[in-house]
Fold:
Amino acid sequence: MDRPSLIRQSARALGLDALGITRAESPDRAEHLSEWLKLSYHGEMAWMAKSPAVRMDPGTYDSTAQTIIIAGLSSRQPSPSIPRGRIAAYAQGEDYHAILRDHLESLARKTIVEWGGKYRITVDSSPVMEKLIAAQAGLGWQGKNTLLIHPEHGPWLLLGCILTDLEISPDAPARDHCGSCTRCLDACPTGAFPQPYVLDARRCLAYLTIEHPGPIPEEFRPLMGDRIFGCDECLEVCPWNRHARQSREVRLQPLPRPDLREMLSWDDSRFRKEFRDTPIFRLKRNRWIRNLCVVLGNIGTPEDLPALQQTQRESDPLIQEHASWAIAQIRNRL
Ligand code: B12
Ligand code: SF4
Ligand code: SF4
Structure:
Protein backbone atom coordinates (compact mmCIF):
# COMPACT_ATOMS: atom_id res chain seq x y z
CA MET A 1 0.00 0.00 0.00
CA ASP A 2 1.32 3.52 -0.77
CA ARG A 3 1.90 6.10 1.97
CA PRO A 4 -1.27 8.17 1.44
CA SER A 5 -3.39 4.99 1.62
CA LEU A 6 -1.61 3.86 4.78
CA ILE A 7 -2.17 7.27 6.41
CA ARG A 8 -5.85 7.20 5.44
CA GLN A 9 -6.29 3.67 6.77
CA SER A 10 -4.66 4.55 10.13
CA ALA A 11 -6.74 7.74 10.41
CA ARG A 12 -9.95 5.79 9.90
CA ALA A 13 -8.93 3.19 12.47
CA LEU A 14 -8.23 5.97 14.99
CA GLY A 15 -11.78 7.36 14.57
CA LEU A 16 -10.96 10.41 12.46
CA ASP A 17 -13.76 11.32 10.04
CA ALA A 18 -11.82 12.89 7.16
CA LEU A 19 -8.26 13.22 5.95
CA GLY A 20 -6.41 15.09 3.20
CA ILE A 21 -2.82 15.74 2.18
CA THR A 22 -1.33 18.90 0.67
CA ARG A 23 2.04 20.59 0.15
CA ALA A 24 3.30 22.87 2.94
CA GLU A 25 2.84 25.98 0.81
CA SER A 26 0.75 29.09 1.16
CA PRO A 27 -2.82 27.98 0.36
CA ASP A 28 -4.95 29.77 -2.26
CA ARG A 29 -6.64 32.97 -1.00
CA ALA A 30 -4.40 33.18 2.12
CA GLU A 31 -3.56 36.77 1.08
CA HIS A 32 -7.16 37.81 2.00
CA LEU A 33 -6.01 37.68 5.61
CA SER A 34 -4.21 41.04 5.20
CA GLU A 35 -7.36 42.77 4.01
CA TRP A 36 -9.46 41.12 6.73
CA LEU A 37 -7.06 42.48 9.35
CA LYS A 38 -6.93 45.93 7.71
CA LEU A 39 -10.72 46.11 8.03
CA SER A 40 -10.36 45.23 11.76
CA TYR A 41 -12.71 42.26 11.32
CA HIS A 42 -10.65 40.41 13.95
CA GLY A 43 -11.88 42.75 16.72
CA GLU A 44 -9.85 42.28 19.90
CA MET A 45 -8.19 39.03 18.79
CA ALA A 46 -4.78 40.75 18.71
CA TRP A 47 -3.10 37.35 18.31
CA MET A 48 -4.64 37.09 14.82
CA ALA A 49 -2.73 40.21 13.73
CA LYS A 50 0.57 39.22 15.35
CA SER A 51 2.33 37.39 12.51
CA PRO A 52 0.17 37.41 9.37
CA ALA A 53 3.10 36.46 7.09
CA VAL A 54 3.67 33.31 9.15
CA ARG A 55 -0.06 32.51 9.27
CA MET A 56 -0.37 32.83 5.50
CA ASP A 57 2.53 30.48 4.77
CA PRO A 58 3.01 27.19 6.67
CA GLY A 59 6.52 27.01 5.15
CA THR A 60 7.44 30.11 7.16
CA TYR A 61 5.81 28.72 10.31
CA ASP A 62 7.89 25.53 9.97
CA SER A 63 10.76 25.80 7.50
CA THR A 64 11.40 22.03 7.47
CA ALA A 65 7.79 21.16 6.54
CA GLN A 66 7.22 19.66 3.08
CA THR A 67 3.76 18.18 3.53
CA ILE A 68 0.65 18.84 5.61
CA ILE A 69 -1.69 16.03 6.61
CA ILE A 70 -4.99 17.56 7.75
CA ALA A 71 -7.66 15.63 9.61
CA GLY A 72 -11.28 16.36 10.51
CA LEU A 73 -13.31 15.12 13.48
CA SER A 74 -17.07 15.67 13.41
CA SER A 75 -18.49 17.71 16.30
CA ARG A 76 -22.16 17.27 15.40
CA GLN A 77 -24.32 16.56 18.48
CA PRO A 78 -27.99 15.97 19.16
CA SER A 79 -29.46 19.13 20.70
CA PRO A 80 -30.32 20.50 23.18
CA SER A 81 -27.92 19.48 25.93
CA ILE A 82 -29.15 21.62 28.86
CA PRO A 83 -32.64 22.47 30.20
CA ARG A 84 -32.45 26.14 29.14
CA GLY A 85 -29.82 27.85 26.99
CA ARG A 86 -27.53 26.52 24.28
CA ILE A 87 -23.82 25.69 24.09
CA ALA A 88 -22.23 25.24 20.64
CA ALA A 89 -21.95 21.57 19.66
CA TYR A 90 -18.14 21.52 19.70
CA ALA A 91 -18.07 22.69 23.33
CA GLN A 92 -20.69 20.43 24.92
CA GLY A 93 -18.22 17.70 25.87
CA GLU A 94 -14.48 17.53 26.56
CA ASP A 95 -11.97 19.87 24.91
CA TYR A 96 -11.52 18.94 21.25
CA HIS A 97 -7.99 20.40 21.13
CA ALA A 98 -6.70 17.62 23.40
CA ILE A 99 -8.80 14.91 21.72
CA LEU A 100 -7.70 15.80 18.19
CA ARG A 101 -4.09 16.24 19.27
CA ASP A 102 -4.14 12.73 20.81
CA HIS A 103 -5.46 11.25 17.56
CA LEU A 104 -2.90 13.15 15.47
CA GLU A 105 -0.04 12.09 17.77
CA SER A 106 -1.06 8.44 17.34
CA LEU A 107 -1.39 8.89 13.59
CA ALA A 108 2.05 10.52 13.32
CA ARG A 109 3.70 7.79 15.41
CA LYS A 110 2.13 5.04 13.29
CA THR A 111 3.17 6.63 9.99
CA ILE A 112 5.63 9.56 9.92
CA VAL A 113 7.85 8.28 12.75
CA GLU A 114 7.86 4.73 11.27
CA TRP A 115 9.11 6.25 8.01
CA GLY A 116 11.87 8.25 9.72
CA GLY A 117 10.20 11.64 9.41
CA LYS A 118 9.77 14.54 11.83
CA TYR A 119 6.43 16.13 12.60
CA ARG A 120 4.65 19.00 14.33
CA ILE A 121 0.96 19.12 15.24
CA THR A 122 -1.38 22.12 15.12
CA VAL A 123 -4.94 22.24 16.41
CA ASP A 124 -6.64 25.65 16.20
CA SER A 125 -4.22 27.73 18.25
CA SER A 126 -1.14 27.71 15.98
CA PRO A 127 -0.73 30.45 13.34
CA VAL A 128 -1.82 28.41 10.32
CA MET A 129 -5.00 28.80 8.24
CA GLU A 130 -6.58 25.42 8.82
CA LYS A 131 -9.74 25.90 6.71
CA LEU A 132 -7.75 26.95 3.65
CA ILE A 133 -5.28 24.10 4.14
CA ALA A 134 -8.19 21.66 4.42
CA ALA A 135 -9.72 23.02 1.19
CA GLN A 136 -6.37 22.76 -0.56
CA ALA A 137 -6.08 19.15 0.66
CA GLY A 138 -9.44 18.25 -0.87
CA LEU A 139 -11.37 17.83 2.40
CA GLY A 140 -14.09 20.17 1.16
CA TRP A 141 -14.51 23.84 0.26
CA GLN A 142 -14.65 27.07 2.23
CA GLY A 143 -18.36 27.93 2.19
CA LYS A 144 -20.12 31.28 2.26
CA ASN A 145 -20.24 30.99 6.07
CA THR A 146 -16.39 30.86 5.81
CA LEU A 147 -16.32 27.33 7.28
CA LEU A 148 -14.87 24.25 5.64
CA ILE A 149 -17.80 22.28 4.22
CA HIS A 150 -17.24 18.56 3.83
CA PRO A 151 -19.57 16.80 1.37
CA GLU A 152 -20.52 14.17 3.97
CA HIS A 153 -20.02 15.91 7.34
CA GLY A 154 -21.13 19.41 6.30
CA PRO A 155 -19.63 22.26 8.36
CA TRP A 156 -19.14 20.17 11.52
CA LEU A 157 -15.53 18.99 11.12
CA LEU A 158 -13.00 20.21 13.66
CA LEU A 159 -9.59 20.46 12.02
CA GLY A 160 -6.02 19.62 12.99
CA CYS A 161 -2.76 19.35 11.02
CA ILE A 162 0.41 17.27 11.02
CA LEU A 163 3.27 19.17 9.38
CA THR A 164 6.08 16.84 8.30
CA ASP A 165 9.44 17.03 6.55
CA LEU A 166 8.51 13.96 4.45
CA GLU A 167 7.33 14.41 0.87
CA ILE A 168 3.98 12.65 0.44
CA SER A 169 1.90 12.92 -2.70
CA PRO A 170 -0.88 15.52 -2.27
CA ASP A 171 -4.63 15.29 -2.91
CA ALA A 172 -6.41 17.56 -5.38
CA PRO A 173 -8.36 20.57 -4.01
CA ALA A 174 -12.17 20.25 -3.91
CA ARG A 175 -14.62 22.47 -5.82
CA ASP A 176 -17.02 25.00 -4.24
CA HIS A 177 -20.55 23.58 -4.07
CA CYS A 178 -22.37 26.49 -2.38
CA GLY A 179 -23.96 27.46 -5.69
CA SER A 180 -26.82 29.96 -5.31
CA CYS A 181 -27.53 28.94 -1.69
CA THR A 182 -27.54 31.78 0.88
CA ARG A 183 -29.05 29.99 3.88
CA CYS A 184 -26.16 30.66 6.25
CA LEU A 185 -26.02 34.36 5.30
CA ASP A 186 -29.79 34.73 5.81
CA ALA A 187 -29.82 32.81 9.11
CA CYS A 188 -27.09 34.75 10.91
CA PRO A 189 -28.87 36.55 13.78
CA THR A 190 -26.42 39.48 13.82
CA GLY A 191 -25.75 40.01 10.09
CA ALA A 192 -22.08 39.13 10.61
CA PHE A 193 -21.33 38.51 6.91
CA PRO A 194 -20.55 41.81 5.09
CA GLN A 195 -20.42 39.70 1.92
CA PRO A 196 -20.53 35.99 1.11
CA TYR A 197 -17.32 34.18 2.23
CA VAL A 198 -16.33 37.03 4.58
CA LEU A 199 -17.02 37.25 8.31
CA ASP A 200 -16.79 40.36 10.48
CA ALA A 201 -15.90 38.60 13.73
CA ARG A 202 -16.90 41.67 15.79
CA ARG A 203 -20.55 40.90 14.96
CA CYS A 204 -20.30 37.12 15.37
CA LEU A 205 -21.87 35.61 18.51
CA ALA A 206 -19.07 33.04 18.67
CA TYR A 207 -16.62 35.94 19.00
CA LEU A 208 -18.80 37.95 21.37
CA THR A 209 -19.51 35.06 23.75
CA ILE A 210 -16.03 33.46 23.66
CA GLU A 211 -13.25 35.80 22.54
CA HIS A 212 -14.55 39.25 23.43
CA PRO A 213 -13.17 40.26 26.83
CA GLY A 214 -15.36 43.15 28.01
CA PRO A 215 -19.06 43.92 28.23
CA ILE A 216 -21.19 42.51 25.42
CA PRO A 217 -22.35 45.57 23.41
CA GLU A 218 -26.04 46.17 24.18
CA GLU A 219 -27.14 45.97 20.53
CA PHE A 220 -26.03 42.31 20.43
CA ARG A 221 -27.49 41.17 23.76
CA PRO A 222 -31.07 40.53 22.56
CA LEU A 223 -29.64 38.84 19.43
CA MET A 224 -27.76 36.32 21.58
CA GLY A 225 -31.14 34.77 22.44
CA ASP A 226 -30.41 31.66 24.51
CA ARG A 227 -26.81 31.12 23.26
CA ILE A 228 -24.48 30.95 26.26
CA PHE A 229 -21.30 29.87 24.50
CA GLY A 230 -20.65 29.99 20.75
CA CYS A 231 -23.22 29.82 17.99
CA ASP A 232 -24.14 27.09 15.49
CA GLU A 233 -26.76 28.94 13.46
CA CYS A 234 -24.79 29.15 10.19
CA LEU A 235 -23.82 25.48 10.57
CA GLU A 236 -27.26 24.11 11.36
CA VAL A 237 -28.95 25.56 8.27
CA CYS A 238 -26.41 24.29 5.72
CA PRO A 239 -28.00 21.88 3.22
CA TRP A 240 -24.77 19.85 3.25
CA ASN A 241 -25.95 18.53 6.62
CA ARG A 242 -28.27 16.11 4.89
CA HIS A 243 -25.81 13.21 5.12
CA ALA A 244 -24.03 14.40 8.27
CA ARG A 245 -23.99 11.87 11.11
CA GLN A 246 -23.55 12.71 14.75
CA SER A 247 -19.99 12.68 16.07
CA ARG A 248 -18.64 9.21 16.85
CA GLU A 249 -16.18 10.66 19.36
CA VAL A 250 -17.46 9.71 22.82
CA ARG A 251 -15.39 12.42 24.55
CA LEU A 252 -17.24 15.10 22.54
CA GLN A 253 -20.65 13.90 23.73
CA PRO A 254 -22.59 16.46 25.81
CA LEU A 255 -21.78 16.48 29.52
CA PRO A 256 -24.89 16.90 31.71
CA ARG A 257 -25.42 20.49 32.91
CA PRO A 258 -28.02 21.87 35.33
CA ASP A 259 -30.32 24.86 34.80
CA LEU A 260 -28.89 28.33 34.18
CA ARG A 261 -30.00 29.51 37.62
CA GLU A 262 -27.96 26.85 39.35
CA MET A 263 -24.87 27.55 37.21
CA LEU A 264 -25.17 31.24 38.09
CA SER A 265 -24.55 30.35 41.73
CA TRP A 266 -21.27 28.48 41.10
CA ASP A 267 -18.22 30.13 42.65
CA ASP A 268 -14.82 30.12 41.00
CA SER A 269 -13.69 26.76 42.37
CA ARG A 270 -16.98 25.10 41.33
CA PHE A 271 -16.65 26.70 37.85
CA ARG A 272 -13.14 25.28 37.52
CA LYS A 273 -14.20 21.86 38.75
CA GLU A 274 -17.17 21.63 36.36
CA PHE A 275 -15.44 22.98 33.25
CA ARG A 276 -11.85 21.71 33.60
CA ASP A 277 -10.83 19.96 30.34
CA THR A 278 -13.69 21.56 28.39
CA PRO A 279 -13.50 24.53 25.96
CA ILE A 280 -15.53 26.62 28.44
CA PHE A 281 -12.70 26.58 31.01
CA ARG A 282 -10.63 29.22 29.20
CA LEU A 283 -13.55 31.66 29.29
CA LYS A 284 -12.99 32.04 33.07
CA ARG A 285 -15.89 32.50 35.45
CA ASN A 286 -16.54 36.21 34.91
CA ARG A 287 -17.23 35.90 31.17
CA TRP A 288 -19.30 32.77 31.78
CA ILE A 289 -21.48 34.61 34.33
CA ARG A 290 -21.65 37.60 31.92
CA ASN A 291 -23.04 35.29 29.22
CA LEU A 292 -25.46 33.55 31.61
CA CYS A 293 -26.84 36.97 32.62
CA VAL A 294 -27.47 37.98 29.00
CA VAL A 295 -29.29 34.71 28.30
CA LEU A 296 -31.39 35.06 31.46
CA GLY A 297 -32.15 38.66 30.42
CA ASN A 298 -33.48 37.24 27.14
CA ILE A 299 -35.35 34.13 28.29
CA GLY A 300 -35.53 34.39 32.10
CA THR A 301 -38.69 34.55 34.24
CA PRO A 302 -39.52 36.26 37.57
CA GLU A 303 -38.34 33.05 39.32
CA ASP A 304 -34.82 33.91 38.13
CA LEU A 305 -34.81 37.36 39.78
CA PRO A 306 -33.52 36.33 43.26
CA ALA A 307 -30.52 34.51 41.72
CA LEU A 308 -29.77 37.51 39.50
CA GLN A 309 -30.08 39.91 42.45
CA GLN A 310 -27.55 37.79 44.32
CA THR A 311 -25.21 37.97 41.29
CA GLN A 312 -25.71 41.73 41.09
CA ARG A 313 -24.08 42.02 44.55
CA GLU A 314 -20.77 40.50 43.33
CA SER A 315 -17.71 42.78 43.30
CA ASP A 316 -16.81 42.48 39.57
CA PRO A 317 -18.31 45.49 37.69
CA LEU A 318 -18.67 43.39 34.50
CA ILE A 319 -20.88 40.89 36.35
CA GLN A 320 -22.80 43.62 38.24
CA GLU A 321 -23.69 45.46 35.04
CA HIS A 322 -24.82 42.35 33.14
CA ALA A 323 -26.90 41.13 36.10
CA SER A 324 -28.58 44.57 36.34
CA TRP A 325 -29.31 44.49 32.62
CA ALA A 326 -30.87 41.02 32.93
CA ILE A 327 -33.06 42.08 35.86
CA ALA A 328 -34.29 45.13 33.92
CA GLN A 329 -35.09 42.98 30.87
CA ILE A 330 -37.15 40.50 32.90
CA ARG A 331 -39.00 43.32 34.73
CA ASN A 332 -39.74 45.03 31.39
CA ARG A 333 -41.39 41.87 30.17
CA LEU A 334 -43.68 41.59 33.22
C1 B12 B 1 -10.19 33.32 14.39
C2 B12 B 1 -11.12 32.14 14.43
C3 B12 B 1 -12.47 32.37 14.72
C4 B12 B 1 -13.06 33.78 14.79
C5 B12 B 1 -13.19 34.31 13.34
C6 B12 B 1 -13.84 33.29 12.39
C7 B12 B 1 -13.40 33.40 10.94
N1 B12 B 1 -14.30 33.04 10.05
O1 B12 B 1 -12.26 33.74 10.67
C8 B12 B 1 -14.40 33.52 15.53
C9 B12 B 1 -14.18 33.71 17.02
C10 B12 B 1 -15.56 34.39 15.11
C11 B12 B 1 -14.62 32.04 15.24
C12 B12 B 1 -15.87 31.45 15.27
C13 B12 B 1 -16.10 30.11 15.00
N2 B12 B 1 -15.16 29.16 14.85
CO1 B12 B 1 -13.24 29.56 14.68
N3 B12 B 1 -11.38 29.78 14.30
C14 B12 B 1 -10.64 30.83 14.16
C15 B12 B 1 -9.20 30.43 13.76
C16 B12 B 1 -8.33 30.47 15.03
C17 B12 B 1 -8.56 31.27 12.66
C18 B12 B 1 -9.48 31.49 11.41
C19 B12 B 1 -8.85 32.50 10.47
O2 B12 B 1 -7.76 32.32 9.98
N4 B12 B 1 -9.56 33.61 10.25
C20 B12 B 1 -9.04 34.68 9.43
C21 B12 B 1 -9.93 34.99 8.25
C22 B12 B 1 -9.15 35.90 7.30
O3 B12 B 1 -10.21 33.80 7.61
P1 B12 B 1 -11.60 33.42 6.92
O4 B12 B 1 -12.85 33.84 7.53
O5 B12 B 1 -11.41 31.99 6.71
O6 B12 B 1 -11.45 34.39 5.67
C23 B12 B 1 -11.28 33.95 4.37
C24 B12 B 1 -12.43 34.35 3.51
O7 B12 B 1 -12.86 35.64 3.94
C25 B12 B 1 -11.77 34.31 2.18
N5 B12 B 1 -12.32 35.28 1.27
C26 B12 B 1 -12.32 36.60 1.34
N6 B12 B 1 -12.95 37.13 0.29
C27 B12 B 1 -13.34 36.12 -0.46
C28 B12 B 1 -14.04 36.11 -1.64
C29 B12 B 1 -14.32 34.87 -2.23
C30 B12 B 1 -15.07 34.86 -3.49
C31 B12 B 1 -13.86 33.67 -1.62
C32 B12 B 1 -14.10 32.36 -2.24
C33 B12 B 1 -13.18 33.71 -0.40
C34 B12 B 1 -12.94 34.94 0.15
O8 B12 B 1 -10.41 34.58 2.32
C35 B12 B 1 -10.11 34.69 3.70
C36 B12 B 1 -8.76 34.08 3.92
O9 B12 B 1 -8.78 32.79 3.46
C37 B12 B 1 -9.43 28.95 13.26
C38 B12 B 1 -8.29 27.97 13.54
C39 B12 B 1 -7.13 28.14 12.60
N7 B12 B 1 -5.94 28.18 13.13
O10 B12 B 1 -7.32 28.22 11.40
C40 B12 B 1 -10.73 28.53 14.00
C41 B12 B 1 -11.74 27.70 13.21
C42 B12 B 1 -11.92 28.35 11.87
N8 B12 B 1 -12.97 27.84 13.99
C43 B12 B 1 -13.73 26.80 13.99
C44 B12 B 1 -15.04 26.74 14.55
C45 B12 B 1 -15.62 25.36 14.77
C46 B12 B 1 -15.74 27.92 14.85
C47 B12 B 1 -17.23 28.05 15.20
C48 B12 B 1 -18.14 27.12 14.40
C49 B12 B 1 -17.43 27.81 16.73
C50 B12 B 1 -18.86 27.96 17.23
N9 B12 B 1 -19.76 27.02 16.98
O11 B12 B 1 -19.19 28.91 17.92
C51 B12 B 1 -17.49 29.56 14.87
C52 B12 B 1 -17.98 29.74 13.41
C53 B12 B 1 -18.17 31.14 12.96
C54 B12 B 1 -17.94 31.29 11.44
N10 B12 B 1 -18.99 31.31 10.65
O12 B12 B 1 -16.77 31.36 11.02
C55 B12 B 1 -13.09 25.65 13.21
C56 B12 B 1 -13.79 25.55 11.84
C57 B12 B 1 -13.84 24.16 11.26
C58 B12 B 1 -14.50 24.17 9.89
N11 B12 B 1 -15.17 23.10 9.55
O13 B12 B 1 -14.38 25.13 9.16
C59 B12 B 1 -11.57 26.14 13.13
C60 B12 B 1 -10.81 25.72 11.89
C61 B12 B 1 -10.89 25.57 14.41
C62 B12 B 1 -10.52 24.10 14.25
N12 B12 B 1 -9.25 23.77 14.34
O14 B12 B 1 -11.37 23.25 14.06
N13 B12 B 1 -13.45 31.43 14.91
S1 SF4 C 1 -21.67 31.67 14.28
FE1 SF4 C 1 -23.73 32.64 14.52
S2 SF4 C 1 -23.35 34.84 14.74
FE2 SF4 C 1 -21.44 33.90 13.96
S3 SF4 C 1 -21.60 34.09 11.75
FE3 SF4 C 1 -22.48 32.08 12.23
S4 SF4 C 1 -24.68 32.49 12.51
FE4 SF4 C 1 -23.65 34.48 12.57
S1 SF4 D 1 -25.57 27.22 3.93
FE1 SF4 D 1 -25.43 27.26 1.67
S2 SF4 D 1 -24.13 29.04 1.22
FE2 SF4 D 1 -23.84 28.55 3.38
S3 SF4 D 1 -22.06 27.22 3.43
FE3 SF4 D 1 -23.87 25.87 3.32
S4 SF4 D 1 -24.15 25.51 1.11
FE4 SF4 D 1 -22.76 27.27 1.29
In short: The chain has a mean pLDDT of 97.
